[in-house]
Amino acid sequence: MTTSTYSTGSLVTARGRDWVVLPQSADDMLVLRPLGGADDDIAAVFPAFEDVKHAEFEAPVPSDLGDAQAAGLLRSALRIGFRAGAGPFRSLAGIAVEPRAYQLVPLLMALRQKTVRLLISDDVGIGKTVEAGLIASELLAQGEASGLAVLCSPALAEQWQEELRGKFGIDAELVLASTVSRLERGLDLGQSLFDKYPNVIVSTDFIKSTRHRDDFVRHCPDLVIVDEAHTCVAADENTSTLNQLRYELLKRVAADENRHLLLVTATPHSGKESAFRNLLALVKPELAHASLDSRAGRELLAQHFVQRKRADVREYLTKEDGLSDDRLAEKTAFPSDRFFKDETYKLSPEYRALLDDAIAYAGERVEAAGAQGKREARIAWWSAIALLRSLVSSPRAAAQTLRTRSAAAAATTAAEADKLSAHVTQDSTENDTMEGQDVAPGAETGLVSEAGARLAELADRAKALEGPTGDLKLKALLRHLKALVADGYNPIVFCRYIPTADYVAAHLEGKLGKKTVVKSVTGTLSPQQRLGRIEELATEAGDDPAARRVLIATDCLSEGVNLQHYFDAVVHYDLAWNPTRHDQREGRVDRYGQKRDEVRVITLYGNDNGIDGKVLEVLIKKHRQIRKDLGISVSVPDEMSSGVTDAIVEWLLMRGQQPEQEGLFGLDALETLDTKAAQLEADWNSAAERETTSRSKFAQRAIHPEEVAREVAAIRDTLGDAGEIHSFVRHSLHALGAVQREVNDGTGDFTSDVSGTPAGLRDALASVAGGEAVERGRPIPFRTTSAVARGEAALVRTDPVVGALAGHVLNTALDTEADGSRPARRCGVITTTAVAVRTTLLLVRYRFHLTLPSRSGEKQLVAEDARLVAFEGAPRNALWLPQQTALDVARAEAAENTDPHFGERTMTRILTQLDATKPHLEEYGEELAAELLDAHRRVRTASGEIIRGLRVSVQKPADILGAYVYLPYAPAGTTEPAMTTGETA
């Protein structure tokens, strides 16, 4: 495309800056992107009304000489600033996260499918959200998708919104039960919500309405991500109604063969083969009945299923993965292990008496109700469980339960009683959200008229036991928290019920030291308020190394929320009756980005309350052992764990009505429980064996590590690697006057006080690092990991702080009149031992025209790349050197200072002859274009239809951003090195 005067890819000057002309331009309107800028900065300019002219890239000024580091710093600053890379991964240059090498595997799998259908089932904490986000941003950038819908629980909606916006630059509207009315008021007549908002995050609550569900199916975007996908399939007729609704919805969404679908879950099996098969059928219908024992079945599955545990990716791209060397090896700092410690407590005599009386009462009610009918029996049963669980939790939860009417009391049938109470008294993992499950259940049934007075009396006794004197469980917690805080840990204490969390938080306030901040988060807060409360806790604790953070939470935070930046220990104050819930709690802090190598886990249990000991022995410890043996968690089906806990309650109630014999649980009385426990263990071991077999059988083999290594090398070659970024930040900050201090923990982390740097840099950093860090001298922590907390900077090219620093270095290098220190310069004459003859290094910027066919038609793009090229001798008779030699020269150090006047004369001679290098630079540009074309084809090998339309060409001429002359060092008394053929003095 050409306008009357400007061609695509050419440079123009307008509005006081240089721009690249994009293919969308017309004769009367130019669509422009700032030179080196991002798509977000694209602007439309009308030449008839604004001053637009051709931009000629100015040659370097020979008197503006830099030191030996000038070339490397300018190249790094330029590459960091690229937001429109030319490689096959269109989005990687522009996103604000640097993916781990193993996270590229699902992306490579996706790009080999014409319609992307994947089940991503990597282990907890590996980064499934990032993997799904990478695929989404790439499909949107390539035009393969025009819109996105994320289906998730309402508790995680805001987190998904923040992840998509902050890391991938995707603005998505929240479609929640609380926002639907407001969003619909802004619609035109007949317009769908999903036509107005192309990118949406849809709450699972939203689809409960048939009208909304049907509208979603009719206008569903062409890319759908389903979080916690295991909650969206039906295993059998006993599956919850909401699961059935979601499953029916997803079947309708997946029925469109052209719709991209990403299913994300760490637990695709959940102990049920039928549920796993239903998940697979959503991505590929043939997988519902394919024989996964056959080679053909496994090969089909491998195209659509990726599942890895931490051990698989902790060290990746090594010789053990089949590579020839460890040059590209990447280590991911997951915590090495969880340190478990089970701590017991005994009930006080008063609490013991209360529990005994409550058990006796509950047993009487269950026995009496059994004679009244099945409905009454189930109501009494659920009331008994609610009473016992709340009593074991805390005196405050017990008092509230004793004074609250049971939800089951409103039931008209036994089945309805089960449906109304199961979710608040048991710990099912099949519920899609923790919302409402932390409310203390009721125990008053209304079945017996005189029961109210007895319940009230028990409630008053429970209330009187509040505090560490009557409640020895609270006293034990206080002791263990003091020890954790003294050891430098920041723990989360998980409670089952809201009253317990509030009670614990109130009694811990001021008891853990002046520098310990205690906050609580429960289901009484909205999901957004919960995250705000956590940020409030972190802010209040501040940066004082002696400050500690203690969070008291219910299971509203046990799934999906990332807490590893602020907390590093977990205390289970209340035992969950499903061990998977414990794993979910621990997974909030035991994940990528956790600074501790070992996460501490303390489990409090009562050794004389008749419940905790058996739950711990039969369920929790068995789950831990399997996880330790396999390296992953194996879910136990809810009905299996419920069978054991029901047996515990049943025999506890029976014993409560008889004189104690050999303790609360006599051996005879436990016969049924032991039978059920043995059956559970057998079934669990069988599930663990199946999981081991399937992990081996279905190991990710669709993408070989060699293929990943090749793409990682290409990405690092274009955008820079971690070592280059680390060196750039350290050298640039030092040159600009920042005060740096080592953390000295072996990680390479450091802090930097930037308050004394030039005003231009401080202004650039203020918007991304905060005014307090910039103006008041609060050191900015720089971390070698990309998973950082708020207020920290990651040493990766996409971090906002690194980007602001690179922008300042680049702008001051191009502006010879800039105030303050200028670390990078466009010229330099360096005397060094690294060369034997005079060698000239050129930093060259190339622009490429790409034609990328997609389902929405051809997409015309202009992308940029920066390369170092080097030659020996004079430009007119240049001996061009290999690429690796040019990189080595750029790292050369000066052996002695070069006289500035001599350097300027040398630089002037080189610059006046640079036109002679154009033929080689153009030829090299053609080679790069051919390499790019091959790279784009390589990552899309599965779709010949798309490959045939790819085209790549180079824009001429290339821009020479910098020129640096390296002179051989000749020590005093030695003969000057000879000049190469054609070289002039």
3D architecture notes:
Mean pLDDT is 84; it is low at 659-669 and 980-985. With 985 residues, the chain is α/β, with parallel strands linked by helices.
User: What structural class is derived from the secondary structure elements?
Assistant: alpha/beta
**Quaternary structure state of the chains depicted:** single chain
In total, the number of strands is 31
Q: Number of DSSP helices? A: 32
Apparent shape: elongated
Q: Compute the average pLDDT.
A: 84
Query: Roughly how many Å apart are the termini?
Result: 46 Å
For the largest beta-sheet, the strand count, sense and barrel status come to:
7 strands, mixed
Compute the CA-based radius of gyration: 33 Å
Low-confidence blocks of residues: 659-669, 980-985
Write a short abstract of this structure.
It contains 32 helices and 31 strands. It has 985 residues and is α/β, with parallel strands linked by helices. The strands form 6 sheets. Strands 6, 26, 27, 28, 29, 30 and 31 form a 7-stranded mixed β-sheet that branches. A 7-stranded parallel β-sheet has the order 9-10-8-11-12-7-13, sandwiched between helices. A 6-stranded parallel β-sheet has the order 16-21-20-17-19-18, with helices on both faces.
For this entry, give a set of tags.
31 strands; disordered C terminus; seven-stranded parallel beta sheet; 41% helix; 985 residues; seven-stranded mixed beta sheet; alpha/beta; 32 helices
